[in-house]
């Protein structure tokens, strides 16, 4: 059977995907969770034509096909002289020709008059129809009226052919591409002033916790500042989504339910906190109380074990993706990156691509509990053999935000590894 391109490469069959059975039931791997969820997600409806200068971060709704070859005419790749085949004798060491024309970028094609001759030409200019090569001016001496060519170029030298970049009829940009400067420039080179894009995904962000105080306010005893709200909103905006930034709610079932009901009008709802097993963890219960469901809970990763994925009933009968992330800030960062963003991108119309890791070498060993794959915040330094050296940037707590702030990458320690020794090589994911 051909692998489904949507599914993560590391996906495992649904029947045996439990990395660990805790008292609350199985914990899933990231690969198995994405493999289950991604095929069921389809992109939001609603396309628009977007001016190029506003298209950054938007998702292309259709393939862009070029009807013209790019470039559309033969042009010079160098400043120099355009030559005809018949003026370039085989095996000659050098050649002197009268200069019989001049063509700069933007001039329309110019033919050579009869008789031997070269045409002064500049980079990007249309090649005269009867010429087939260009000699760089560094290989010539000229007084303006004639040119001595010291190195005779081969046929086709320094000529860009029509379709050299893209042949007519080829796909220049594929549907689902999240547009950055490269893609926008490519669309411009096709002559497009607007591109078809998908509607921007609307994602509601709700932080829960009676201990939360907004930055700028005095901090009462026992309280902390709400940082997850800013982490989530900023990261989601960076990813190109429209963020509906809701005020935090206390650990109160009625408040959480009311906020979820309102948030369900968006395409997806992400909460932080209140998703674990304590009596003050009301998020999963609130999802059920408003008529939603929890399909998955608990991942075999550290940080980020208690992650709930499900759906909320939307106001028009549609299902709104629900993602309940844990409260610890580093768990929010990791689970948003590894679970949240892939799911949201699928809703936004971007096909899943597994993250690309690179190898790093651990500098100082540490012991750890087995059973969960761990994403360790590390700083990187150049290594003698080209493999970066990785040092843990904290003590491994998912509440230690300073470790994440200092980190260059997340080093991935496999679930079965109980002793990560100095010198061992692990895969890592870049943070940015
Ligand atoms: N008996 C158990 N207790 C816990 C377990 C467990 O399996 N059994 N799992 C632990 C793990 S792992 C995590 S992660 C946390 C997640 O719990 P919650 O999702 O219920 O999160 P909270 O308890 O609400 O908060 C955890 C921690 O994070 C701080 N927090 C919460 N929201 C914010 C915010 N917006 N900005 C900054 N910091 C926030 C909160 O004050 C707590 O310190 O559960 C463990 N417990
Ligand atoms: O998932 Mo928790 O983040 O391990 O502390």
TrEMBL record:
Alphabetical list of InterPro entries matching this protein: MoaB/Mog-like_dom_sf (IPR036425), MoaB/Mog_dom (IPR001453), MoCF_biosynth_CS (IPR008284), MoeA-like (IPR038987), MoeA_C_domain_IV (IPR005111), MoeA_C_domain_IV_sf (IPR036688), MoeA_linker/N (IPR005110), MoeA_linker/N_sf (IPR036135)
**Signal peptide (residue range):** none
Pathway(s) where this gene product acts: Cofactor biosynthesis; molybdopterin biosynthesis
Region (Disordered) spans which residues? 1-23
Does the keyword Protein transport belong to this entry?
no
Query: Catalyses which reaction?
Result: adenylyl-molybdopterin + molybdate = Mo-molybdopterin + AMP + H(+)
Question: A GO biological process this protein is involved in?
Answer: Mo-molybdopterin cofactor biosynthetic process
Q: So what family is this one in? A: Belongs to the MoeA family.
This one is known as Molybdopterin molybdenumtransferase
Organism whose genome encodes this protein: Novispirillum itersonii
Tell me the lineage of the source organism.
Bacteria, Pseudomonadati, Pseudomonadota, Alphaproteobacteria, Rhodospirillales
């Amino acid at each position: 059977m051909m692998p489904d391109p949507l599914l993560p490469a590391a996906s495992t069959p649904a029947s045996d995907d439990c990395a660990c059975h805790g008292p609350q039931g199985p914990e899933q791997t990231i690969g198995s969770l994405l493999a289950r969820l991604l095929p069921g997600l389809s992109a939001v409806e609603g396309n628009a034509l977007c001016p190029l200068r506003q298209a950054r971060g938007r998702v292309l709704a259709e393939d862009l096909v070029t009807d013209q070859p790019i470039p559309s005419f033969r042009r010079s790749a160098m400043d120099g002289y355009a030559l005809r085949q018949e003026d370039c004798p085989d095996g000659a060491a050098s050649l002197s020709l009268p200069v019989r024309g001049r063509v700069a970028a933007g001039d329309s094609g110019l033919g050579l008059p009869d008789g031997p001759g070269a045409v002064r030409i500049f980079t990007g200019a249309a090649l005269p129809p009867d010429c087939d090569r260009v000699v760089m001016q560094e290989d010539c001496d000229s007084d303006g009226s004639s040119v001595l060519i010291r190195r005779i170029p081969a046929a086709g030298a320094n000529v860009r052919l029509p379709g050299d970049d893209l042949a007519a009829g080829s796909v220049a940009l594929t549907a689902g591409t999240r547009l950055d400067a490269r893609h926008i420039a490519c669309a411009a080179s096709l002559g497009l002033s607007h591109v078809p894009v998908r509607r921007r995904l609307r994602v509601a962000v709700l932080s829960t916790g009676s201990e939360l105080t907004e930055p700028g306010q005095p901090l009462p005893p026992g309280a902390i500042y709400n940082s997850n709200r800013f982490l989530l909103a900023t990261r989601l905006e960076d990813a190109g989504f429209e963020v509906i930034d809701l005020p935090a709610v206390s650990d109160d079932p009625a408040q959480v339910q009311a906020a979820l009901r309102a948030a369900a009008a968006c395409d997806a709802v992400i909460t932080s906190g209140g998703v674990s097993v304590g009596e003050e963890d009301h998020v999963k219960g609130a999802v059920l109380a408003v008529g939603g469901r929890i399909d998955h809970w608990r991942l075999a990763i550290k940080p980020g074990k208690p992650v709930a994925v499900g759906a909320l009933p939307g106001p028009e009968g549609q299902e709104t993706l629900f993602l309940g992330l844990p409260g610890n800030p580093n768990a929010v960062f990791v689970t948003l990156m590894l679970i949240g963003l892939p799911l949201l991108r699928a809703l936004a119309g971007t096909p899943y691509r597994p993250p690309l890791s690179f190898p790093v070498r651990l500098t100082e060993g540490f012991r750890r509990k087995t059973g969960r794959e761990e994403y360790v915040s590390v700083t990187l330094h150049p290594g003698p053999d080209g493999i970066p050296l990785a040092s843990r940037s904290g003590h491994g707590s998912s509440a230690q935000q300073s470790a994440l702030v200092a980190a260059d990458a997340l080093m991935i320690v496999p679930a079965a590894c109980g002793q990560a020794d100095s010198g061992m090589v692990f895969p890592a994911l870049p943070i940015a």
